[in-house]
Design brief:
With 155 residues, the chain is α+β, with helices and mostly antiparallel strands. The longest helix has 23 residues. The radius of gyration is 26 Å and the shape is elongated. The two termini are 45 Å apart.
Length: 155
């Protein structure tokens, strides 16, 4: 196998050498076949909005995914604080975190997002434009969250 570099892709040439008993008069004993290995990156299916035609939509940005993951972590941590400690309040969390009470409440709403939406966001299968702010303050009923975001409910 020889390596031939062409552009951004690596193309390999597979060489198959036949034994003398299989060689045909007039043809060489070597068969060379070009081969490009499959991409190691898995293609992601983007969840599209209702009524949108199938098109190449760009996935949410990496930075938006990171911010969402951090906000989701904070939401679950703060919710655990509120559930476990009866003396804990949103006001105390806001003071401890150096944030406004409204910011804490909005971030806490992320703890109640439907799990398939969370998975889609973490895996980068939501369209560009989705992030922590857009996913905050959704309806509590999971099926209504899909509608509020303008996405198709998965089958």
């Amino acid at each position: 196998m020889r390596d031939c570099r062409t552009g951004a892709y690596t193309r390999y040439l597979l060489e198959i050498r036949f034994s003398d008993s299989l060689a045909v008069d007039g043809l060489g004993r070597t068969l060379t076949i070009p081969w490009i290995p499959p991409s190691p990156y898995q293609r992601r299916e983007i969840i599209q909005g209702k009524g949108e035609p199938r098109s190449p939509i760009r996935p949410m940005r990496v930075r938006a995914r990171a911010v969402f993951a951090e906000s989701l972590r904070n939401a679950h941590r703060w919710l655990d604080d509120l559930v476990m400690d009866p003396n804990q309040t949103i006001e105390l969390i806001a003071a401890r975190e150096g944030k406004s009470e409204r910011s804490i409440r909005m971030t806490l709403s992320l703890a109640f997002i439907a799990p398939p939406i969370v998975v889609a966001a973490i895996e980068g299968r939501l369209p560009r434009g989705f992030g922590a702010k857009r996913l905050m303050d959704l309806p509590m009923v999971w099926s209504h969250q899909w509608t509020a975001l303008g996405l198709k409910v998965p089958a």
